[in-house]
Amino acid sequence: MRLTCGPFAVDLSTPVVMGVLNVTPDSFSDGGHWFDPVRAIDRAVEMVEEGAAFIDVGGESTRPGAATVPVDEELRRVIPLVEALAGRLTVPVSIDTRKPEVMRAAIAAGATLVNDIAALGAAGALEAVAGSGAAVCLMHMQGEPRSMQAAPDYHDVVAEVVAYLQDRAAACVAAGIAHERVVLDPGFGFGKLLEHNLDLLAGLDRLAALGFPVMAGLSRKSMIGQVTGRPVGERLAGSVALATLAALGGARIIRAHDVAATVDAVKIAAALAARQGR
Ligand code: 9MG
Q1: Which residues, in sequence order, are bridge partners of residue 55?
Q2: Rounded CA separation 37/23 (Å)
Q3: Catalytic residues
C-alpha cells in the first residue's frame, strides 16, 4: 500500500509514524513548546532523524474545549514554518487545519498532505485539495472541539464512524482526489467517551477493510489518563501501548509526539504481523 503525497510515494506496507509539531500556545499535550520557529524546525529535524515518515504542522489547538483561531493568525503561525520545513525535510510535510485558506497557502508553501479533523467538510475544502496533488487525511469528529466532549452519543460507534468516513472518501474521489491520496482516521477522543475509543480501537480492522490507509492518533490522549490515572506528562507508556495495538489492528500511520519510542513500537508490531503472514 502506497500513499501519493505530491511528489512523494510513501510506502505503507508496514506502519509508519507521523510526528506532531503543534505551533500553538495552548495544545493540550505540548502547548507552547514549539511556538518559537527555530525550536520548531529543530524539533522537526529531530523527529525525522528518529524515524518520522511525516511531520504534521498545526497552528490551531484541537483539544477538547479549544476555541477557533482566526485565519490570519493561523496563517501567520504555520506558513513560514511549512515553507522552511518543505525546503529542508526529506519527508512530506502535513498541514493540520480545517480552513480552506490555510490548506491552499500551506500547499503553495510545500505541504503535500492535508490533515483535516473536519474531513474536508468546510465550504471550499474539497476543492482546495482536489486542485492540488496533496494527499488528505479525513478524520471523524462528533461535534466541534469546543463542545465535543459534552455528550458524545452513538448507537454503534464503529458502524457510524466507518459509514461517515466511507461517505467522505467517496466525496473526495468524486471531487477528483484519487483513492491513492486518501487516508481515513477514526478520530480517537474527538466526541468520544472511553468506551467509544476502546470500541474503535477494537474495531479498527473494519475501517481498514474499506481499503484506504488508516491513521490513528492516540498519543498522550485523555483515554490513557482515564485508564491509567496518569496526567498528560506521564503518558508515554500508555501512548506506546496504544500505538502498538493500533498498528496490530491495521493502522498504517500512527500520529505521535514521542517519535523514537513509537517507531520502535510499530517495528515490533510489524515484525509480529510479518511472522503471522499478515
Ligand atoms: C490534529 N489531531 C489531533 N489528534 C488527531 C488525530 O487523532 N488524528 C488526526 N488525523 N489529527 C489529529
Answers
A1: 19, 93
A2: 8
A3: 221, 255
pTM for this entry: 0.95
Mutate to test the pocket of ligand 1, among 3, 24, 68, 185 (most ligand atoms within 8 A of CB): 185
User: Nearest C-alpha to atom 11 of ligand 1 is from which residue?
Assistant: 117
**Could you identify the residue written with the cell 512523494?**
8
CA distances in angstroms from 98 to 34, 101, 108, 141, 178, listed in the order given:
20, 9, 16, 12, 20
Cα(141) to ligand 1 centroid in Å equals: 10
| Coil, helix or strand at residue 185 | strand
Cell for 147?
463542545
Residue of minimum CA distance from atom 7 in ligand 1: 217
Residue ranges lining ligand 1, Cβ < 6 Å: 58, 62, 96, 115, 117, 137, 139, 185, 187-188, 215, 217, 255
Measure the CA–CA gap between 72 and 75, rounded to whole angstroms.
5
Per residue of the chain (278 residues), give pLDDT as tens: 999 999 999 999 999 999 999 998 865 556 566 667 889 999 999 999 999 999 999 999 988 888 889 999 999 999 999 999 999 999 999 999 999 999 999 999 999 999 999 999 999 999 999 999 999 999 999 988 887 777 888 999 999 999 999 999 999 999 999 999 999 999 999 999 999 999 999 999 999 999 999 999 999 999 999 999 999 999 999 999 999 999 999 999 999 999 999 999 999 999 999 999 88
Give the CATH fold of the 2-275 domain: TIM Barrel (3.20.20)
Where does residue 151 rank: exposed (0-12), middle (13-18), buried (19+ CB within 10 A)? exposed
Q: Taking Cα atoms as reference points, which of 204, 234, 202, 208 lies closest to residue 220?
A: 234
SS3 track for 109-123: CCCCEEEECCCCCCC
